[in-house]
Amino acid sequence: MQHMAFETQYAAYQERIEEHLQGLFPDASPREDLYDAMRYSLLAGGKRVRPILTLEFARISGLGQKWENALCAACSVELIHTYSLIHDDLPCMDDDSLRRGKPTNHKVYGETMAVLAGDALQPAAYEHILSCPTLSQAQRLECALLLSEASGPHGMVAGQVLDTLHAPQTEAELMEVHRLKTGAMIRAACMMGCVCGGENDPAIRQAAHVYAENVGMAFQIKDDILDVTATTQTLGKPVGSDAVNGKATFLTVLGEQACETLVRDLTERAKAALYGVFPECDFLCRLADLLAGRNH
Prior knowledge:
Elements lengths: L2 H20 L9 H11 L6 H15 L7 H18 L9 E2 L2 E2 L1 H5 L1 H20 L6 H15 L4 H10 L5 H11 L1 H15 L4 H28 L2 H4 L5 H4 L5 H5 L1 H19 L7 H12 L3
Antiparallel strand pairs: 1-2
Helix pairs in contact: 1-4, 2-6, 3-4, 3-10, 4-6, 4-7, 4-10, 7-10, 8-9, 10-11, 11-15, 11-16, 15-16
């Protein structure tokens, strides 16, 4: 895909995602304080990688120019992701004070409201997908199931438990943590896109799954690199906290050069999974390359 074509499509996705998220949880008495806290983190910006993956897989899986029909599903993924970030930043978890260049939710609204804002975003995600008017009942149910499997005790939460309470030290342990903590939600985003597009071919869905697995792991390893090589200004959150806390990361276990090589290898595996399966895979390949080469 040509550079301008990619940028145009990415911008179109981002614009519609932001518009859709802006329409959620408008101020309404008597819950202004809760809605304010929810929207503070939800509308704080970010790359919106997960909902963009949903929209692109929906587009190439059958929706074509009707990809906006998958917006409810895509934004439901972002609601879950935002809840996880709010809770990750809490003092009982990573105890971070900055996220996306802004004070973290609990620094602005207090720990109690931050917990409750995260708690509210999670069921709101399922309400949003299950009431989506542009998908069939079967599609809504399958998307909700994929999202619940990815975010719960078999996915993201399990990864967080391993990460915070079991002190992973080896490469294999770190791979398992982030297969669950980071990878599960990226897999769900991609698979939900296939569902929204009406793609039921097991081989095609498997290709999407392999792409997501590899992109997710590459994303996390790159994150570990940036935690040491980037600055707080470029990253939008504190850097070096893992080292301060004595926490093992891919960088400390493998070294920077090996990590960079692994990021490239995983990215190539992700792209290879799509070749010959998805005729229109240029956007996803370009996205994988950009994520691997990002500096923030």
